[in-house]
Design goal:
Two copies of one chain form a homodimer. The first copy, chain A, is built from eleven helices and no strands. Chain A is mainly alpha-helical. Chain A has one domain: Orthogonal Bundle (Tetracycline Repressor, domain 2). In chain A, helix 2 crosses helix 3, helix 4 runs parallel beside helix 8 and helix 8 packs across helix 10. Chain A is elongated, with a radius of gyration of 18 Å. In chain A, 43% of the residues are buried. Chain A binds a DNA duplex (30 and 30 nucleotides) through helix 3.
Chain lengths: 188, 188
DNA sequence: AAATATCTACCTACTGATAGGTAGATTAGA
DNA sequence: TCTAATCTACCTATCAGTAGGTAGATATTT
């Protein structure tokens, strides 16, 4: 009767992602995941031997999807503002779907209490997203006039503002706040 | 031998604050607090009946101290950039002391999994800090030229960038990143 | 038959919380 | 001033519930 469906693994990951984004890494349990998916907790262990494994896999998948959705930063446009809007839009989609914070932003907030492998994946999200933005900015006319250090600084500033914006918009329960925060690139 | 010291309550709060800032609200327990302070967990309950009480008290104290350290935004200077630097400096101090994130930033990240009273205090931090900054900006020559909506937007942008910056600096284990992020106010 | 997926049944460790007790300081009344 | 009552600041012992994790049986698919 319990017909095996190959989607169990991804349903576990989906639910884990949702719960982490809502309550943090320490805010979900195998039992809750199991109950939500409709299996026993031991079955969750079958797919993900430990909680750290599950956490790391979810974070990796999140980052892969996020960067996939962003596409190639050199393709999309030669306009720096458009690049930043693209990034903003991608975060906004996560926030508006269910009032949810960026997964890796949540993980970053509690990074010192995370298993090594999970912390590493969280860090990877910011490495990769920052690399995406820097690469894109360098190709724009705007970026061409700036030093490497200044590009680095601007990229970090944009990323920081977007992550912080999600944080604040959600704690205030005002998702619209995030829309005010399409970052401006500044000269000088 | 265990001389009764009236500081027990504040030592509990100190340790709780540290642990929350490191691992989040779900990342500490009464037993750990008790062990760190050198009493039994029931004694922690004596001062703070529930975990939510302790969390809320710690968040409130953090916010009070933070705003106290900022002082009156209208006193400090007529220079908008100086106001923002003051805010940046206050966050930087928290980060550099022990590589720790802003307490209410951590709480904000897991806000949907928090007891009501704790979430309310976390929200209060952003309300009050934003009010401080907006009040200050309005008094500056720079702020005088802007609409109320634009002040609101800039204030939010600054706060978001600082919170996000702490998050990223810490997950990357590079506190120096935060120093790159003294936010620029932008015209227009 | 072998491999895959899921189950039952359990473990140990720890969670927040409560009950009830106590030594010692403080306060109030006679 | 002595005494009785009360309060402070803890304690021990225990609770029911939940955490992550495991061994081994069972069912299903190939």
């Amino acid at each position: 009767m319990p017909k095996p469906h190959a989607e169990t693994e991804s349903r576990i990951m989906d639910l884990a992602e949702n719960m982490i984004r809502r309550n943090g890494y320490n805010g979900f349990s195998f039992r809750e995941i199991a109950a939500g998916v409709g299996v026993k907790s031991s079955s969750v262990h079958y797919y993900f031997p430990t909680k750290a494994d599950l956490g790391a896999c979810v974070a990796r998948r999140y980052t892969d999807r996020f960067l996939d959705a962003l596409g190639d930063p050199e393709d999309s446009s030669e306009d720096a503002q458009h690049l930043v809007s693209k990034l903003h839009g991608e975060f906004a989609r996560a926030l508006s779907s269910d009032g949810q914070m960026c997964l890796c932003g949540v993980l970053a907030a509690e990074v010192t209490g995370l298993p090594e492998t999970v912390a590493e994946e969280a860090k990877g999200f910011f490495d990769r997203t920052d690399a995406w933005l820097q690469k894109g900015l360098k190709k724009t006319a705007w970026g061409g006039r700036l030093s490497a250090e200044e590009i680095e600084r601007q990229s970090l500033a944009v990323l920081a503002q977007l992550e912080g914006g999600m944080l604040i918009a959600r704690v205030q329960d005002r998702p619209a706040l995030f829309d005010l925060l399409k970052p401006q690139l500044s000269d000088k």
